[in-house]
Q: What sequence folds into this?
């Protein structure tokens, strides 16, 4: 179960399949004790670039970010915790910040590359 849990969480972080299936698997795994899985800038930039290219549905990005933000077993390195936590919060709350657009994704990519 442990390696399956890590795989489910990692697959969600990298958005490797249908979001519904990934979220269900990650939520099931998150309920069990186990090793945390890291969210890093590279994974977030990859997801953003895939949203910009149209490979992923940019309108689903807030849902992805909200789920990642709420999972207990997803951790962020100390050096990136402030920026990535802010990213997850802002992107998962477009009604409080900005609607998710290609421009918003590009600005976050630039911010991550220059931080």
A:
């Amino acid at each position: 179960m442990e390696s399956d849990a890590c795989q489910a969480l990692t697959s969600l972080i990298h958005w490797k399949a249908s979001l519904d299936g990934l979220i269900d698997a990650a939520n099931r795994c998150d309920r069990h004790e186990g090793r945390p899985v890291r969210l890093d800038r590279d994974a977030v930039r990859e997801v953003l670039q895939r949203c910009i290219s149209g490979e992923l549905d940019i309108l689903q990005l807030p849902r992805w970010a909200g789920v990642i933000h709420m999972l207990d077993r997803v951790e962020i390195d100390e050096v990136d915790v402030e920026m990535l936590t802010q990213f997850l919060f802002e992107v998962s709350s477009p009604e409080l910040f900005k609607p998710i657009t290609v421009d918003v994704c590009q600005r976050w990519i630039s911010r991550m590359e220059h931080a």
Summary: The chain has a mean pLDDT of 92. The first strand starts at residue 37 and ends at 39.
